[in-house]
Amino acid sequence: MVVNYKANGKLLLTSEYAITQGAKGLAVPTKYGQNLNYISSDKDRYIRWNAKGENGETWFWAKFDLDLKIIDTSDHRVALTLVKHLDVIQHKTALLDQPGIFTTLLEFPTEWGLGTSSTLVSLLAQCAEVDPLTEFRLAHGGSGYDLACATAQTPIIYQLEGSTPIVKTASINFDFSDDIGFVYSGNKQLTAESLDLVAKKPFLQKQIERFDDLTHAFLNSSSVLELEEVIMEHECLVSEHLNLPKIKETMLSGFPGQAKSLGGWGGDFALVTRLNTSKNWLSDHGFKVVFPFKDLIL
Description:
There is one protein chain. This protein folds into two domains: about 1-170, Ribosomal Protein S5, domain 2; about 175-295, GHMP kinase, C-terminal domain (Alpha-Beta Plaits). Helices cover about 35% and strands about 25% of the residues. It contains ten helices and twelve strands. The strands form two sheets. Strands 1, 2, 3, 4, 5, 6, 7 and 8 form an eight-stranded mixed sheet that branches. Helix 7 (about 205-220) runs antiparallel to helix 8 (about 225-240). The longest helix has 19 residues, at about 225-240. The radius of gyration is 20 Å and the shape is globular.
């Protein structure tokens, strides 16, 4: 038996930090994700796991017995984390009742922050035909928007109502999408650090409501100028509350367009405007990973 699954990466365009407290966030699945291939084996006694990076090289491997006891591995810490995930679905899929080979393949470098963990969790949920937001969200941490993006085929508006995830499809139909894009910061931001930051200083309800307004204003922007106004207010709202420097005060100081941090500030990707007239600036300042808007989102 051979099965294959695919999970999308993710980017959160609005309501970073505040999305964990019930703010509506606009999120997009990315064209880069992670794949899983499973092949059953009647000539073996073990479950074997091979994880490959975007270059096709194996960065982790493990061998388990049918009780998910670790027999051998290249990294015991990673293997223990994997076992915790497999435990969730062990009795919900026949794939773990028999010997077989699982092979995962990332389509992006891990440091890009597009969802190495969330795509894996989604792949496991697909193997067991269970809802990752039900089975994994609390253990996975965060709001769960990344798990929703993993199988989404369009942008989504994601919101937590209490502990219940609400996922609605959305459309981004900018006439000016060719003039906006994504720039990789060169730094990886740890999700746990971002969660700790907002837990220590939660947003007020009126701020949450403003994030909701800005999410809809982002979607309904009819020009680059309108989008830039949304970006500037959004950056001010997060910066002033969490006492964080705006990205145009740090990494993209002097950038000719507007820029917005995505996800945890200080790492991963930023959204930028005026891309067509700013490519030389980005190149001159050492930014090598730059995607036009439509080239990265699904």
